[in-house]
Task: inverse folding
């Protein structure tokens, strides 16, 4: 390629990289540090869920406890089934406290409910590192357990344990049902600003405000935020955006505020849980401080990047765009600078869009349905790319100062008789100036044997048709003006 072409290529790649850099600027927020107070502990990996995994092995539990060690002083469980009853004993080796929990839901039957509650009571009774017990998670919010049955489970646990016992519900449940406070040793509340569409800049104040509302209403009860957090991906809810930057911002600001004001809390959650897409949609997968592979999603100190791997995507975008343009320009060496620039811009834009789609797909935990969806999307994108490249070639032909490929030269054959052509221009109440310009354009045609018939149909106002008639008279015999007045117009019968 010529030097000027190389300059166009470098400038276009530079613009592409500048856009990537601008979009992915580091974000600075308050700084805090590990260990934080508590995190929810769901030790299920990408291909696991509490519905399909009969039991989590001790080795897997040990591995996940090592990942949490040093990051949280306490972990909150949600059940004592599926091998989770081993967690308190294993957590002792890592100096981690445990909030033991029983999952109860009438849809799974009384037998499983009873077993989970009894196992939880047993765990709390024999493990000193179980600091609190929670029986049931949002059972009254979702109406999954009758209130009297929940009270019976709570009474049984409180009777057998010295460890404080409660049930976990949203913060407003306790305000709306103040009598229920007598059924628990402490108040476990959930405050999740994303779900109620609170914008990120108000989220921490919202959580602290709701905590204080409950605390002030029940000053003699210990109030524990059993769940708060922010997702790193998912659909926008009102003013609440699920992004990695917002997740990092919320966690860092809330942890700092909670430590300053001595608010007991639990962050949901330690690891991303792909299985939660079944119950909570795409956003349910992305509440973890670590991803499903147990890698930190953001630091608690220093700048935060929405996508820590954005530089690889930016370079891939530029390289793909360059290769596409290089192949295209090698076949179109006759293009001028404008055509080269347009083709380069199109290929860079196409490559950027492709890499963005690939990046979005890579951030998802793929279910079979997701694989089908992205397969359709990528196929459709490939077809669209072919259309865009085809259009780019046509635009480059026109804008690039290159003569069109299909060029029809005038015939050199002298005809003895040119076919006669009659051009008819029909009008009715058209502006005279517009019609005069139309007739003048036709009268300038380079053809020896034709006529122009201007046919005015039912224009009643002479001020409209007369200027056109007078002008046609000045153009010679080949232009004729015909005025048809009072032509019968058939109207529909209603």
Result:
């Amino acid at each position: 390629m010529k030097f000027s072409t190389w300059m166009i290529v470098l400038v276009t790649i530079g613009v592409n990289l500048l856009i990537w850099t601008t979009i992915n600027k580091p974000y600075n927020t308050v700084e805090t540090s590990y260990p934080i107070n508590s995190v929810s502990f769901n030790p299920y990996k990408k291909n696991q869920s509490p519905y399909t995994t009969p039991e989590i092995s001790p080795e897997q539990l040990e591995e996940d406890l090592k990942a949490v060690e040093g990051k949280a002083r306490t972990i909150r469980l949600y059940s004592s089934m599926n091998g989770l009853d081993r967690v308190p004993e294993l957590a002792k080796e890592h100096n981690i406290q445990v909030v033991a929990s029983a999952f109860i839901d009438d849809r799974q039957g009384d037998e499983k409910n009873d077993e989970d509650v009894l196992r939880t009571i047993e765990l709390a009774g024999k493990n000193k590192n179980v600091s609190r017990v929670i029986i049931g998670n949002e059972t009254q919010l979702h109406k999954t357990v009758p209130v009297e049955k929940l009270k019976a489970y709570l009474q049984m646990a409180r009777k057998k344990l010295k460890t404080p016992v409660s049930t976990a519900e949203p913060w407003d449940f306790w305000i709306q049902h103040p009598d229920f406070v007598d059924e628990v040793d402490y108040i476990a509340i959930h405050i999740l600003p994303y779900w109620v569409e609170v914008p990120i800049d108000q989220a921490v104040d919202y959580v602290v405000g709701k905590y204080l509302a409950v605390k002030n209403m029940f000053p003699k009860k210990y109030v524990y935020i059993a769940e708060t957090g922010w997702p790193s991906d998912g659909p926008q809810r009102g003013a609440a955006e699920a992004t990695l930057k917002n997740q990092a911002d919320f966690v860092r600001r809330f942890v700092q505020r909670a430590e300053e004001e001595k608010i007991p809390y639990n962050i949901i959650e330690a690891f991303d849980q792909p299985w939660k897409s079944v119950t909570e949609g795409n956003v349910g997968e992305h509440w973890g401080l670590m991803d499903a592979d147990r890698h930190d999603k953001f630091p608690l100190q220093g700048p935060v990047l929405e996508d820590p791997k954005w530089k690889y995507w930016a370079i891939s975008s530029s390289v793909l765009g360059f290769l596409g343009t290089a192949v295209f320009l090698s076949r179109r060496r006759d293009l001028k600078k404008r055509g080269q620039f347009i083709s380069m811009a199109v290929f860079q834009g196409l490559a950027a869009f492709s890499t963005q789609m690939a990046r979005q797909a890579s951030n998802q935990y793929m279910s079979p349905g997701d694989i089908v969806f992205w397969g359709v999307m990528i196929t459709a994108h490939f077809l669209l790319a072919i259309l865009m490249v085809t259009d780019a070639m046509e635009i480059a032909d026109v804008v690039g100062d290159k003569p069109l490929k299909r060029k029809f030269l005038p015939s050199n054959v002298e005809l003895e008789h040119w076919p006669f052509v009659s051009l008819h221009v029909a009008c009715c109440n058209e502006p005279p100036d517009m019609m005069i310009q139309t007739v003048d354009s036709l009268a300038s045609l380079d053809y020896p044997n034709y006529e122009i018939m201007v046919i005015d149909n039912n224009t009643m106002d002479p001020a409209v048709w007369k200027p056109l008639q007078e002008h046609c008279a000045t153009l010679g015999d080949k232009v004729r003006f015909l005025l048809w007045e009072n032509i019968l117009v058939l109207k529909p019968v209603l």
The longest strand covers residues 130-137. Residues 421-484 form one domain. The two ends are 73 Å apart (CA to CA).
